[in-house]
Amino acid sequence: MKRSEVREHIFRILFCVEFCEKEEFEDQVELYFHGHENINEKTQKEITAKTENLIEHLDEIDEEISAHTNAWNLERLGKAELSILRLATYEILLDEQVPRKVAINEAVELAKKYCNEKAAPFINGVLSKIGQDMDEE
Q1: Which of 3, 82, 107, 109 has its Cα between 20 and 30 A from that of 119?
Q2: Residue 70 belongs to domain with CATH number
Q3: What is the dihedral of CA 17, 58, 106, 11, to 10 degrees?
Q4: Neighbouring C-beta atoms of residue 95, cutoff 10 Å
Q5: Where are the beta strands (DSSP E) in 53-113?
Q6: Rounded to an integer, what distance in angstroms lies between the CA atom of residue 105 and that of residue 37?
Q7: Which domain holds residue 80?
Q8: How far apart are CA 115 and CA 120, in angstroms?
C-alpha cells in the first residue's frame, strides 16, 4: 500500500475518533478495519501504531497548531481540517520518515479531497508556518 493511502487511512481514523471519547479509540480502530478488509495485517499495524503515537502526542500537536492559526480556536475548525492539520503536524514534528514538504503537500491534497475550497490554502499556510518556525529553531 502506498504511503499516501496509509496516510489517508490514518486521517479517516482520526476523523472518526473526533466523534467519540478517547476511551473508545481502540474500538473505533477495530471497527474501521472491519469495514476495510482489504488492508493487510502489516499495514493495519503500521496505521494503528502511527495513529496511537499521534494520539499520545495530541496535546503537543494541538499546541503547535494553535500557535500558528492566528487566534483561531481549534474548536472552530472543522473536524476534517483539524484531523488533517493534526496528522501533518505529527509528521512534521515527530515522524522523521516523512519529509516536511511531503507532509504539507499530502495534507493539502487531503484537504482538496475532504474539505471545502478554502481549507487547502489555510492548511498550507498553517503548516508552512510550523515548518518555518522549525527552521528558525
Answers
A1: 3
A2: 1.10.940.10
A3: -10
A4: 15
A5: none
A6: 28
A7: 3-136
A8: 8
